[in-house]
Design goal:
The complex is a heterodimer of chains A (279) and B (267). Chain A is an all-alpha fold and 279 residues long. Chain A has a single domain, classed as Orthogonal Bundle (MetI-like fold). Helices cover 76% and strands 0% of the residues of chain A. Chain A is built from ten helices and no strands. By secondary structure, chain B is α/β, with parallel strands linked by helices. Chain B folds into two domains: 166 residues, P-loop containing nucleotide triphosphate hydrolases (Rossmann fold, 3-Layer(aba) Sandwich), CATH 3.40.50; 64 residues. Helices cover 34% and strands 22% of the residues of chain B. Chain B contains seven helices and nine strands. A six-stranded mixed beta sheet of chain B has the order 5-6-7-3-8-9, sandwiched between helices. The chains are: A mainly alpha (279), B alpha/beta (267). At the A-B interface, helix 7 and helix 8 of A face loops of B.
Chain lengths: 279, 267
């Protein structure tokens, strides 16, 4: 169960009194995290411009930006980003949806758990990326291959954490709700699902990480479109600026997915003490 | 009892105080595995009475309460609450822990007390009234996590009272509170009970609390009733009254004397 961790506590400093000085300090604190990346970027640019690093080994930040602009104008970048995004989304929906549903069913029903859990745990121990050769044999390099791999990858984090969430709902709360006449769907909606939600979100955030990782590998090995394909094509023509651009875009998409999950989490778990300090 | 026979239990939404429900236990037994926790309890609690059940831990007092409240099934014997019905809608439980839903506002937690069908506009109105009765109307919109232990337990009391129960089962509800909050809660419980006149069964390990609140104190030893004492002090009761202290000392002596016996028997 290494996929299960407690929801992270959002960082917040001491209660700052309103005032210009404290506001400035807050601003400084917030921007402090960007100092190091900015310095690194400058050093990188300087090393490239001075010829310390050869351009064929590592393009300068400006060259990467230029490549991004070039590919945006040609439409290639947006098209490939769209393709990758759709693949990721479809895989998350199918695999994540199945994992969530099975997690609920196995969490609620002892019989279903006994029947399916050990099988699922066995499959979980197969590294899904090891299946790539088989997947290529089965599906070629069509969309099904990517969908299959991403779905398989995101299935387990959501399955395990949903199962864990449902099973760890406080039995005292369940007993309380039962004593007030809550049964079946009402009990599920009012007590079990909200109680399992923090754990489900942990699963979702894990799944998002696995989702991008799987997609990068799949697109790099077997694809005819997408960011990974763009990077491989560029390598063939020694366009290192496009390769670095692709890597950065993956990072950006990953960050975007994580931020979305955090916003969702903050909205759904507003009651959670970990999210109340900012309120 | 005859006066209660025609009160319909099917209308838990009646607004005026439903009179308390009488409780009758006959030869009630309960075992967990090989351990017999209750050995044939016979008990009649009249409508509106405030009964405290005391005893050492593991004596079966909590089990007795859980059976009366319908949280568990008994092995043999009978539990009758009100006019021939086993407990259900008419009984409410207050636990040692507040057991509030952390994802529901204080008000929504009280609405839970009306059951799955209670979440309408009228239900919210009644929940607000119930919160006002425990002095927390101004906290209705907050999350339970920001309340103190005593406030949480008051919300739990409001939740238990919002459906105007005829029987309130209290399972050491003040056990986890600090001394001053506990005295406050005792007063609140007494005031609420005086106003609404439900039947109350309070399980507690605190003899002082039993003497302060109850009309009648039952002592349970080894799964059987050992003492049945009426407390006739006038209400509202003041903390620190001399008669109360005497009674408390008597019951404690019995409890502790039994402890000594037990120790010598065990040796």
């Amino acid at each position: 169960m290494t996929d299960t961790v407690a929801p992270s506590l959002p960082f917040s400093g001491g209660a700052a009194a309103p005032g210009v000085a404290s506001r400035l300090r807050a601003l400084g604190e917030r921007s402090a995290g960007w100092l190091l990346p900015a310095a690194l970027l400058l050093a990188w640019q300087a090393a490239c411009s001075s010829g310390l690093i050869a351009n064929v080994i590592m393009p300068s930040p400006v060259a990467v930006l230029a490549a991004g602009w070039r590919l945006t104008l040609s439409g290639e970048l947006l098209e490939n980003m769209g393709v990758s995004f759709l693949r990721a989304g479809a895989g998350l929906l199918v695999g994540g949806g199945l994992g969530f549903a099975l997690g609920l069913v196995n969490g609620l029903s002892r019989q279903a758990f006994v029947l399916t859990d050990s099988t699922l745990q066995m499959v979980r121990n197969v590294p899904h990326l090891a299946l790539i050769p088989m997947v290529i044999v089965w599906f070629g390099i069509e969309e099904e291959a990517k969908l299959f791999l991403v779905s398989l990858g995101v299935f387990f984090p959501l399955y395990i954490n949903t199962l864990h969430g449902v099973r760890s709902v406080d039995p005292q709360l369940v007993e309380m709700a039962r004593s007030y006449g809550f049964r079946g769907a009402a009990l599920f909606r009012r007590v079990i699902l909200p109680g399992a939600l923090p754990s489900i979100f942990v699963g979702l955030r894990f799944a998002l990480g696995v989702m991008w990782l799987t997609l990068i590998v799949a697109e790099t090995i077997a694809a005819q479109s997408g960011i990974g394909y763009m990077a491989m094509q560029a390598r063939d023509f020694m366009l290192v600026d496009v390769v670095v651009l692709s890597i950065l875009i993956y990072a950006l998409l990953g960050k975007l997915a994580d931020v979305t999950a955090r916003v969702l989490e903050r909205r759904c778990l507003a009651w959670h003490p970990a999210f109340q300090r900012e309120a | 009892m005859s006066a209660l026979a025609d009160v319909s239990l099917d209308s838990p939404l009646d607004v005026r105080p439903a009179p308390g429900a009488p409780v009758v236990l006959r030869a009630l037994t309960k075992s967990y595995g090989a351990k017999r926790v209750l050995r044939g309890i016979d008990l009649e609690v009249s409508a509106g009475q405030f009964v405290a059940v005391v005893g050492r831990s593991g004596c079966g007092k909590s089990t007795l309460l859980r059976l009366v409240a319908g949280l568990e099934r008994h092995d043999a014997g009978q539990v009758v609450v009100a006019s021939g019905r086993t407990s259900g809608e008419s009984a409410r439980v207050m636990f040692q822990e507040p057991r509030l839903l952390p994802w529901a506002s204080v008000l929504d937690n009280v609405v839970v007390g009306l059951g799955p069908a209670g979440a309408g506009g009228e239900g919210r109105q009644r929940a607000i009234e119930a919160l006002a009765r425990v002095g927390l109307a101004d906290r209705a919109g907050e999350w339970p996590a920001v309340l103190s232990g005593g406030q949480k337990q008051r919300v739990a009391l409001a939740r238990a009272l919002v459906s105007r129960p005829r029987l309130l089962a209290l399972d050491e509800p003040l056990g986890a509170l600090d001394a001053l909050t506990r005295i406050e809660m005792r007063r609140l419980l007494e005031a609420v009970w005086l106003r609404e006149r439900f039947t109350a069964i309070l399980v507690t390990h605190d003899v002082g609390e039993a003497v302060a609140l109850a009309d009648r104190i039952l002592l349970i030893e080894n799964g059987a009733l050992a003492l049945d004492i009426a407390v006739e002090a006038p209400r509202p009761r003041r903390p620190g009254a001399v008669e109360a202290a005497k009674l408390e000392a008597e019951i404690l002596a019995r409890l502790l004397g039994d402890l000594d016996d037990g120790a010598s028997r065990g040796a």
